[in-house]
Specification:
Homotrimer. InterPro entries: Gram-neg_bact_OMP (IPR050298), Gram_neg_porin_domain (IPR033900), Porin_dom_sf (IPR023614). Pfam families: Porin_4. It is a multi-pass membrane protein. The protein has 371 residues and is mainly β. It has a single domain, classed as Porin. Helix content is 6%, strand content 50%. The protein contains two helices and 18 strands. A 16-stranded antiparallel barrel has the order 1-3-4-6-7-8-9-10-11-12-13-14-15-16-17-18. The longest helix has 13 residues. The protein starts with a helix and ends with a strand.
Amino acid sequence: MKKSLIALAVLAAAGAASAQSGNLNGIPAAGSVQIFGVVDATWQHGSGSVASKTRLGNSGLNSSRLGLRGTEDLGGGMSASFWLEAGVNNDDGTGSASNNNNQAAAAALGNGQQGLTFNRQSWVSLNGGWGSVRLGRDYTPQFVNLTTYDPFGTNGVGTTLTNAAAGAGTPTFVRASNSIAYLTPSNLGGFNGTLQYYMGENASNAAGGTNKDGTGYGLKVGYAAGPLDVGVAVSNTKYAAGDQKVWNIGGQWNFGVATLQAQYNRDRIDGVAGAANSTANSWLIGGLVPVGAGLIRASYSTIKTNAGAGTSPRARQLALGYVHNLSKRTALYATVARVTNSNGSAIALNGSTTGVNQHSTGYDIGLRHSF
């Protein structure tokens, strides 16, 4: 333990200027190894018709993390980079769980039971004028597209109701292990793209025809120039419990005084052994309004699910938040959200419990510091 702390201290001293990890597809700046992170603590309250809950959580504005990153200039316009980023539950000091083969069975050990893992990102890349090839654990392209066009990103009580769908809990909805990805260069006149393939790493003779379990691909194509930013993405993952297919489209326009955002997401999980397919369709419209040293965030999102049971549960959510920047690295924030359920839905916020077709309200108040 003592040697580990000394090693981290050396890396911190040798690192370049610290910065928050904000670019999901970024390449570290050339130079020394950097140590970086975010510590985000959140007071959370949720109320529903059955039970309410109050707790101290984390990651209400940005995900808490601790990481190392660096880039070496290889000459001739080429470089090599690495990124190791661990999720941290700073409210109790535990680490976040990872998944070594993109399969449900590998997620048996939850947060705090695997120690500190580089679950958020752990990759090495080769970069040049032709783009980047990235190897390791990384975000899936469809998730990058989803979080880009949500005023609340994918953190906190105000985030899109897409994250309430069953498909949002699958191993590759956010990240994929054992991935090989190609990212286009940044000089394509505003166009950008990512192609990713990831493996479950099963034997060819795996029992029950599960040799492809946890294997899949993702693709994202986007365009960003001036005030316009749009993107579309798809992913397809093989699972023993039913293949998952996701596609989404989103966009935003910066008017100067405000930024308008919108997105649509469709998530389908195929039924197995004669079971019906499960689908979830969700959309969001929202905006960001800078006010002095602060930022107002607002969104309206809906979700409709269908599992072949003759009903289509629906939910609608209104969310409003404010972020006040005390400095470039420290911010206070508050968010309130209210979900209205119908047609058999019972989505509840911040750990509360609500009855079928009932309301739920959630509050976040937090402090975030990045380094």
